[in-house]
Design goal:
The chain is mostly helical. It is built from five helices and no strands.
Length: about 150
Amino acid sequence: MLFPLFVVVTLLEIYVLVSVGESIGGFSTVLLVVITALIGSTLLKQQGWSTMAKAQNSMANGQTPAFEMMEGVVILISGVLLLTPGFLTDILGLLGLMPWSRTYFIDRILTKNAEKVFAQRNTVFIHKSRSSEDKKPKKNDTIEGEFWED
């Protein structure tokens, strides 16, 4: 599923780049792609630091920064899309960096996949305990610890 998507997006990007290049010229098209990448990298940095501050604030309040971690994933994917040359990927990347659309993307991902995640009942937890004869350390066992001299 990923390979056909990659091929289709690449072909669409080439088509859009050629169409824009015919309309405004080759140099202007390249310049426009570079400008969108610069704007995107600035937004990427700003939104990344903002999300990091929100995550630290959540942890300081004793909350799990789950939503902030999801925002971080969307920001990371948006950064990759902005590094990919082309207008369609730049538009998707810029949408992922806007807080209102990023929230929309996260809500859509969670509502689409929540049923799959919580419907699985075949989760297995295996706990291996040592019997009394296994409690003696063996010669090849590694014992983890810390050591320092004053």
